[in-house]
Amino acid sequence: MSRNDSSGSQCCGQHRRAFLADVGMGFTGLALGAMLARDGVVRANEEAAYAPPDGRAHFRPRAKSVIWLFMNGGVSHMESFDPKPELTTHGGKTIAESPFAHTQDPEKLKLARVTVINDANGQQRNKLYPLQVGFRKYGESGIEMSDWVPHMGSCADDLAVVRSMWTTDDNHGAQTQFHSGRHMLDGEFPTLGAWVHYGLGSLNENLPQFLSIGKREYWNAKDGHYLGPAHDAVPLRIDPKNPLDYAKSAGGVSLDEQRLGFDLVGKLNQLKGIEYPDDTALAARIQAYELAYRMQTSIPETIDFADETEETQKLYGLDDPATKEFGTQMLAARRFVERGVRFIQVQHGAGGAGVWDAHGGLKANHERNFKAVDKPVAGLLKDLKRRGLLEDTIVLFASEFGRTPGSQGADGRDHHIFGFSVWMAGGGIKGGMVHGKTDEIGFHAVENRHYVTDIHATILHQLGLDSRKLEIPGRKRLDIDHGHPIDAIIA
Average pLDDT, stretch 174-197? Predict the structure, then answer.
């Protein structure tokens, strides 16, 4: 037997993995051997994941955790955080008929011509579509936002709204682009959360450091990729009775009995480590299962809201069917951050292209979706702030792109990549400010333009990380994919 063939190791005359497969530890509802087979560890000599850094920041961090709120499908920036009254003034006109095509300003004239030719998704959406909602100024900062976000508007003085984002994927692969800085067809690349997990490690050894809440699109279903599965987000349901797949012990097996089983496996691994020191994959997976064993208690406790006051639950909208689902996810996010989870991504509206994809019926679509998320998101910000957690926690509200100033069909907007908005709060981010701008109709980002990975670079900077120092040899990314911190919004 080759010394590298660790799948053939034996203990006391018995095939070691066969022995493990027979140990009824009930761990995450399956015997350990079956889990190893499912995860592919029993396949000999698979390429091991890259060893992570030592968990120390590259420079002094301003934040400890990130809550990444992603609205799947493409939120209209004009009907949310970048109102454009000129759309209503000139609604129904084509761009060629509007003042934007007849200006004497050569730059604006050039912009108007490009607008006619190069609309998003390869289509010409040239007839300006009026705003479908009113807007007003919020907070002492007077940031203009739509009437669909009154609760987020009440937090305006804590927000840095970036109105000058742009991207390049004009279909929903842009979701992958926003999460990873790479195009969907480029191959498999780690997401920002995976890089943070890889670079900084754990704040709480009883909880996963990277969580994903909410359904994910099939093209954006993994995180670690070449960093290894240890850096994938742990998918979570906000249900104390069934938060994770296979999270319950097997019938008739107590936690104490599982503990005995793990102690035995640990001793076997020590023996195996001496005989087969190069078999790192199994050791890494055992560590992950140890975490999952501890999670059987820590996860249900964290998402049990029995100790939360009625006032807090109402703050998140748990008393309203329209806001309850997303509200429970926001409250859970706060509780996980409170307990030291480092990166929490929450997906809203995944499924197909995403629920925000309003090619038709934009008013009803966005009215319904903002009703679901506006109060819970504001509740999260207010609750983090009053508990002193916002200063250490970055909250991002984003979508893969915006929507066209021109109409699609009678009452919709198409995908739009040339200018859109996101906002950030907490973790050393300035509040009460707007950075960047789009033109009069919200078509192009024209001032302080930012590619999506500038958001990545800003978050990494606040966490004390430099993406270039996290690079894997032989896996160097394009410079544009690294991005640059948005210094203007950093306090």
Answer: 89
